[in-house]
Design brief:
By secondary structure, the protein is mostly helical. It has one domain. The chain has a two-stranded antiparallel sheet with strand order 1-2. The relative contact order is 0.14.
C-alpha cells in the first residue's frame, strides 16, 4: 500500500467523522438533533425533523458529498489495472468514519446517505453498484413491500451485496468495498436504540 492510498483512507475516515447533522443542528437549529431523536442518529432525517428544512438539506448534501469526494478523487488518479484492496478501504473509510467518528467519541450515525455518496463517487467509471442498491430499495419498497423502513433497509443491503458480487461488473476491490460498507451499516442498524416494530411483508399485487 502506497502513501497516496493511506492518505486517502485517512482523509476519507476524517471526512466521515464530521457529523454535519450535529454541526448544522447547533449552527442553525441551536439543538443537538441526535439527542432529541428517538434513535440518537445524527442523520439527515433527524436534521430535517428537529433542526428545520435548511439544516436537513445541508446535512443531506454534505453527508453525500463526504462520500463522493474521497472516492471520486482517488479513482481519478488510477489506471484500470491499479484497482487494488486500497480502493475497497477508501470506499469504506467515510462510512466507518460516520459510524465511528473520532470527533464525536466514536458515537455516530447509520451512514446511509454517506454510502450513497460513496457509490456516486464511483460514477461514471463503475455505475452498477449504485444502480443495484437503488434497485434493491425500489424492489423492497414497491414490489415486495417490507415495512417498517428499518427492515426494508437491512433487506436491501443484503440483496444488493449479492447483486454486486453476481452482476456488479466491477473489480473485486469495488465489490469488497461495497461489502465492508454494507456490513458496517447493517451492524449499526442492528445496534440502533430505536423501537423496532414487527416486520411486515406484502406483495404488491396482493392487498
Amino acid at each position: 500500500m502506497e502513501t497516496r492510498d493511506i492518505l486517502y483512507i485517512l482523509c476519507g475516515y476524517l471526512c466521515g467523522s464530521v457529523l454535519f447533522a450535529r454541526v448544522f443542528g447547533r449552527l442553525l437549529g441551536h439543538c443537538d438533533v441526535a439527542a432529541e431523536s428517538d434513535d440518537n442518529n445524527p442523520g439527515a432525517a433527524n436534521a430535517f425533523k428537529y433542526g428545520g428544512f435548511l439544516c436537513g438539506l445541508l446535512t443531506l448534501v454534505f453527508d453525500i458529498a463526504k462520500g463522493i469526494l474521497p472516492v471520486h478523487m482517488y479513482i481519478r488518479g488510477l489506471d484500470s489495472d491499479e484497482y487494488g484492496l486500497a480502493l475497497a478501504l477508501v470506499m469504506a473509510a467515510p462510512v466507518f468514519g460516520h459510524i465511528l467518528p473520532v470527533f464525536f467519541k466514536f458515537r455516530g450515525g447509520k451512514a446511509i446517505a454517506v454510502f450513497f455518496g460513496v457509490l456516486l463517487g464511483l460514477f461514471p467509471v463503475f455505475m452498477m453498484p449504485g444502480l443495484i442498491l437503488a434497485a434493491a430499495f425500489i424492489f423492497f419498497s414497491v414490489i415486495v413491500k417490507i415495512s417498517p423502513h428499518y427492515y426494508r433497509t437491512v433487506a436491501s443491503y443484503g440483496a444488493a451485496v449479492v447483486g454486486v458480487f453476481a452482476f456488479g461488473q466491477c473489480p473485486p476491490a469495488v465489490a469488497i468495498g461495497f461489502l465492508l460498507s454494507a456490513v458496517a451499516i447493517t451492524l449499526r442498524l442492528l445496534r440502533s436504540t430505536e423501537e423496532k416494530e414487527s416486520i411486515e411483508v406484502k406483495l404488491a399485487w396482493k392487498h
